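Throughout our pipeline, every protein is held as a single compact record rather than as scattered files. Such a record has a labelled line for the sequence and another for the backbone structure tokens. The remainder of this section carries one protein's record, kept here as part of the documentation:
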Amino acid sequence: MMGRGLWRRHAVRAGLAGACLASLLAGAALLDHLLPPDMARVRSFALILQARDGTVLDGRTSHDGTWRLPTQSKQVDPTYLALLLQTEDRRFAWHPGIDPLSLTRAAWQLLTHGHIVSGGSTLAMQASRLLMPHPHTWGGKLADLLRALQLEWRYGHTGTLDLYLTLTPEGGNIEGIRAASLLYFGHEPAHLSPAEAALLVALPRKPAAFRPDRHPQALLAAAQGVLSHAQQPLPALWPHPTTGPHPHDAPEVLAFLWGNGRRDTVHSTLDAAQQRTIRALLTRDLPPRHGTLAALVANHEHEITTWVGGSEHSCPSCAIDMVLAPRSPGSALKPLIYGMALDAGWLTPTTRLRDSRMAVGDYAPHDYGHTFYGETTAARALQLSLNIPAILVLQKIGAATFRDHLARCGVVLRLPDATATPSLALALGGEAVTLRELVTLYAAIDHAGTVAPLVLDHTAPPPPPMDTRFASPRATADLRAILRGTHPPAGTSWHDVAFKTGTSYGGRDAWAMATTGRWTVGVWAGRPDGTATPGLTGRGVAGPVLGRIITLLQPPAPIPTTLAVAPTHLNTAALSTALHRMATVAGPQIITPANGAELENSPDPAHASPIGLEAAGGVPPYRWYVNGTPVSVPPGASAAWLPDGPGFTHISVTDAQGLSAQATIRIRDADPTL
């Protein structure tokens, strides 16, 4: 009986203990549900843009102005983790968020010494204070104790450590191990030297007093203490981290990624040296009045290596990224029109096309300078960017068919009126596209006509393969050969470059596009607000900028064989001088009108149209002569000449070095019925 009564008493006590434990657990769960930790700060991250090689190109702080990145312990070098646990929380692996031994020791030291000698805070308690900052009071300390238990309850040891690694202060507005490692050392914390690890462990103890850009010696002394306390060997050479000006080498790319919700780090396809060089080049180049220059470069693998949207110039509305802004392409889409016609088989490079006055209803287009060349080949018509032949080719294809074909290639032509029907004005820029879309289309010229999206994120999975062609390999080869025959812009000497320019109506947008087999480059010039700029042309403004970019990207042309077998008595210096002299004596060439051209003009002087005069090469400025008489060119205006009747005309141009070029053309009366 006594044994049975004792058993019952033990059972009752066990039941009461279980009930109490269950009540405590239920109460803790209820409190955890009613008072969850505020995770807003740990979910607000910065964005850091890296180049292909890991170089930091640009960055943007989180919404609260902090450099903070999500961090997990598996992303951090074990050396750092070992130092952190040895110096901050030795019993982290077994305590539930608070360390009774450390708290007891800290309390005893406080009683015996009258002040705090060592703290009893665990990493969980520090994470709690970092998650929900508060004044250092006894009430705050109690809150840290309870919140530390809650964090361990919710997230366990690993999750709590991750919170600490994400939020720990590392000087200034830098929080977390990843942000500090990237901004101080230029690399992720997966691989840290003992010195780097010690610096990052010591900094959070006094983030203001140890800030590396203000108090480097104090930080180094504290880091030495960390290594000594952890009984680690002291490194012979200490790194000297700084928080100098953060680079802003790709602001438009950063804004694009931020606007698309990207945070954390983005390992891009940008080439750091190329991005900085071309951005500096565009900064030095003189942009259109109140305007800017933009450039996009993609390599043969469809990876974007340079993205400059135009914000480097101080102009109204320069905050607009002109790589992504839809604008009228002018003549820049003409190669796509010819490519479709070449693909259809009814057009070849030698097909004769008519360039004369025409009217389609109320639409009466004309060429640049209001001139007409009569009959010419398709190749020559595209190289000279003649308008009438391009319209005739588009008329044969069908404007709606052309629009739909580009849409299948991923490029949607934006018409002035979304409900409007595509017209022949598409050949002359009566629509809007972006620089990124044009580079995508021109890249297909070096990929047998296959169109593929451009890639910016180096770590993203490759896009699904596309079998979309704007033209067949045969047609694309013909198109490439035609565009390689286009004369380069003034002051440019290159080889094997397929080149095209475009100018929108009224001189609002100037374009220059090129493919080299290895690179595809696009340049835009103009005013972001769409205001017309007098004298703005693709060849005159965007073309020379593109030429300088191609010169940076393209290796020097090989020395001709006839020069490679120079006499043995000609030393290297003399050969170099001779080559330089040959490169600098190349004179100008007349681009428009071409030698031998037959141009139509009105026989009535009152209705005659001026003929534009355009040259390339040599050393500008140019002086023009028509039949030996100088042509007067007002400042800021393009050279032009008004014919005084039909017949043969001799035109010459002279550059600043006195070198010249000549062309003979024939003027004939236009058909008065057109």
Confidence is low (pLDDT under 50) at residues 234-245, 559-585.
